Records
---
Amino acid sequence: ENVLTQSPGTLSLSPGERATLSCRASQSVTNNFLAWYQQKPGQAPRLLIYRASSRVTGIPDRFSGSGSGTDFTLTISGLQPEDFAVYYCQQHGGSPPITFGGGTKVEIK
Amino acid sequence: QVQLQESGPGLVKPSQTLSLTCTVSGGSISSGGYYWSWIRQFPGKGLEWIGYIYSSGTTETDYNPSLRRRVTISMDMSENQVSLNLSSVSTADTAVYYCARVAMTVVRGVTRSFYGMDVWGHGTTVTVSS
């Protein structure tokens, strides 16, 4: 199983600040099949980024993904009030083919 | 646009079978290019992939090895629905259950592209309790 470890568990920041979220895989992620999701309370996760760095249509360009192999990063440049949420990384490959990270909560400082 | 809606009992007794349905509107589940997945989220907020199904002529399924003995995912083309059955449930199966569309292509067992889970249902809460 490819275990994804997200850090930090909680990120306390003010609106306008930059958020840097980490996702580390226990094994190399096949073809960088790594996605990022945002989840707000009472809602389903929403896809933000796929293939490590490709932004979904309609997602603001302040969200960016980077990384390869086992280390990946989601950056939110200039936090907006609606960005305070929990973020999950997900990978495809291996057995089971899909695993999720434990999440990073971005909260208002 | 494509929308997904989960439905099923909110309360299941231990040792019984949990049965949920995901109704897809705005697109056909057999149109190809997409897998249809079940995911659950535990009260502590962790997400777990349960399995997925694909059909475009032939039907393929894959399940989380940790659940394989107890889970079955199937499709009803006539109703445009994807179903989940999880047998012998315990309190550890209490969770919010989501269905989601997975944009990916697999050729001869090798994933050629993976674009993530791009459409999700709202989720349905299932509690296992006597």
---
Amino acid sequence: QLLQSGAEVKPPGATVKIPCKVSGYSLSDYHMHWVQQAPGKGLEWVGLLVPEDGKTIYAEKFQGRVTITADTSTDTAYLEVRRLRSEDTAVYYCATATGTDAFDIWGQGTMVTVSS
Amino acid sequence: EIVLTQSPVTLSLSPGESATLSCRASQFISSRHLAWYQQKPGQAPRLLIYGASGRATGIPDRFSGSGSGTDFTLTISRLEPEDFAVYYCQQYATSFTFGPGTTVDIK
């Protein structure tokens, strides 16, 4: 399973780093994805990390302002979002694809609120 | 970027009825790379269908997926009370994109 923290509140312009801990298998086993869901809105793919080589791919919308990293010693992946603005207020999910490339395991989500 | 369009936006049905949800892609997608998810309020999405027609582990057989090319369908036969939710399609052929969702609510 994927374990995420509950919530973060940050002022505009700040940086947030959201953890996602893997439990029951190794972080290195599968690609790690992040998905954004703004309040009342749909799902938007943010990016992915290939843990075995650290390669990352980001959606164009988020390129340059987010970074996905992994700490294989603690089986924890991270999504960092910089220069936060109100539009970044959302639930951020981590997810993996353990069989086909569809996302079959999801974390419970971390709510990030950007507010002064 | 492959854009997914879902219809209808909202489907109002009664328990026991069948639901047919549509997902249309802006360009050809291999059926191996189309998935459907269910999301209930306050919960993470749950994978229902992968590869257009494969049921994920633990998914009841009243859920079925079909389609190819640019047109895909999720069918829910005999709606149960727990099936009222939002449904998203996703393509993972070229990068990853989700459709805007279809809400299935109780009539």
